[in-house]
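Q: Sporulation protein YpjB, please. Structure only.
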Amino acid sequence: MFMFTGGIKRLTVTLLLAAVVSISSACAASTSTIGQAAKPVDPEQLKRVEFLNQIADEMYKQTMDGQVLEARNKLMQMSDQIPKIQFEGITSVEGLNALTETITQAKRVYSAASYSPEEAQMAVAKIRLATDALTHKNQPMWLQYYKVLQNDTAALTQAVKAGKQQESIADFGKLSQHIAIIHPSLLISRDASSVEKLDSVIVFLRKNINSQPMIGRQVETGLEHLGQVLDELFLKNKDAIAFVPITDPKHPIIWSAGIGLIIVSVLSFVGWRMYQSGRHIVPIKNTRAQEQEFGD
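A: Structure for Sporulation protein YpjB:
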């Protein structure tokens, strides 16, 4: 009897320890938006990243005010600053590559022979969200896009269930463009493997929506999976612990107004672009291997 009681006690202690370890691990994972082990970051590097974010904010405002030359100068200043920053512990290699590629793409827009204010607004919005993601690991501005993507997904689901292929293609275009806007920020804030899941779902949806005829049942399945992936990326699932409210404790009103302006400007651009060009799809990394992986 004593041995039996002792065994129960040991089992209870073991289970309690396991629970504590699991909860601690979950908390640690949820507070780190990069998904990597926390590493000490040189305060000097943090200052440089903050300065980079400040330049991006100024560039965004100048672009919105039509000050093209000034905004282009800020873009070049950002390009010069990046090599001076050590990003270890701030973001992953994939995140850094996403940031540099976003700036490279913006250079093409601002240096184009025929300058497009709308495309410049799109480019600077990507940069603004990306640099903010570097400086606000637990509460980046791109998290506010969750509602936008929810609305996009709901509209697409309704069109698919109604069997309206052309409407589905148009709605998918809006969804994929909105995802493209935050894609660099996702790679900065999240594991590359999690972002690859999103890319695979987008590839799968594009293939089935554009099939002749549209494969409605497959699209609906893909949309269900998309919801799960987005919940994971935005930390909305029930297993997410210690989720931080999306506000800036220092300047909550200014921060909220800033992200609101970015989202409104981007949504306006998406509508303009689809009206002007009739293009409904924004290319996101597309490989045959991704299609086969998700299809299986």
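A: Brief note, in case it's useful. The chain has one domain: 43-295.
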